Amino acid sequence: MIIELPVKLYQNLVNHAQKEFPKECCGLVVGLINDDKLEVKEIFPMTNLDDSAEHFSMDPKEQFEVVKEVRELGYEMIGNYHSHPFTPSRPSNEDKELAYDEEAIYFILSLQKSVPVLKAFRIKKQQDVSEIKIRFIKNGEE
């Protein structure tokens, strides 16, 4: 499996994380799901109700509005994203404990170094973590 992510959406995600720094940012990732690839079509920044550099909790009202919009667009929920302002882009113990949806993709953007690093994971049984390759797409091409 591979994730295709337009560079423009990646930059939107980075901008969201930098705007919220030093707090964690969070949001939803939607698109088209095929057998061998996930095509990201849109990201939806959410409010982090925890207002924290170490935790995030999405606003349920905002989530509900996004779910309605996603249905109207004909897309599917791929997963969610959040930033790690001071740590690497890998799931923390808390991230794993809160990963209840085994089909969701968890995108984590690290701002720990000068160049942001985005990685994507699937988490099974709240402990088995597997990284999924992200292919960045520019103007419809790799």
From TrEMBL:
Record-given protein name: Proteasome lid subunit RPN8/RPN11, contains Jab1/MPN metalloenzyme (JAMM) motif
Q: Cite the GO molecular-function annotations of the record.
A: metalloexopeptidase activity; zinc ion binding
PANTHER family, alphabetized: CYSO-CYSTEINE PEPTIDASE (PTHR34858:SF1)
SUPFAM superfamilies membership: JAB1/MPN domain
Q: Which residues cross the membrane?
A: none
Question: Which Gene3D superfamilies does the annotation name?
Answer: Cytidine Deaminase, domain 2
SMART domains reported in the protein's UniProt record: JAB_MPN (SM00232)
Tagged with keyword Metal-binding: yes
Query: What species is this protein from?
Result: Selenihalanaerobacter shriftii
* GO annotation, biological process: proteolysis
Keywords from the named record: Hydrolase, Metal-binding, Metalloprotease, Protease, Proteasome, Zinc
Entry's InterPro entries?
JAB_dom_prok (IPR028090), JAMM/MPN+_dom (IPR000555), MPN (IPR037518), VirAsm_ModProt (IPR051929)
A GO cellular-component term linked to this record: proteasome complex
Q: Where is the MPN domain?
A: 3-140
UniProt xrefs under CDD domains: MPN_like
